[in-house]
TrEMBL record:
It comes from Prauserella marina. This is Uncharacterized protein.
Length: 61
C-alpha cells in the first residue's frame, strides 16, 4: 500500500512537471509572437501614415 501511494505521488509530480514546462513554453511563445505582431502593426501604421499623408480624400454627401 505504501508503494502505491509513493508511486501515485511520483506520477503526479512528473505530470505537473511536464504540464508546467509545456505551459511555460507556450506562454513564452505567445509573448514573443505578440511582440513581433505589435512591431509589425506599428510599422504598418507608420508606413500608412507616412505614405498616405499627401493623398487626402473626402467623402462627399
Amino acid at each position: 500500500m505504501f508503494w502505491k501511494i509513493v508511486g501515485g505521488l511520483l506520477l503526479a509530480w512528473v505530470a505537473f512537471m511536464v504540464i508546467g514546462s509545456v505551459v511555460g513554453f507556450l506562454v513564452k511563445a505567445v509573448f514573443w509572437i505578440a511582440i513581433v505582431a505589435g512591431a509589425a502593426f506599428l510599422g504598418a501604421a507608420a508606413y500608412g501614415a507616412i505614405k498616405g499623408s499627401g493623398n487626402k480624400k473626402q467623402i462627399r454627401p
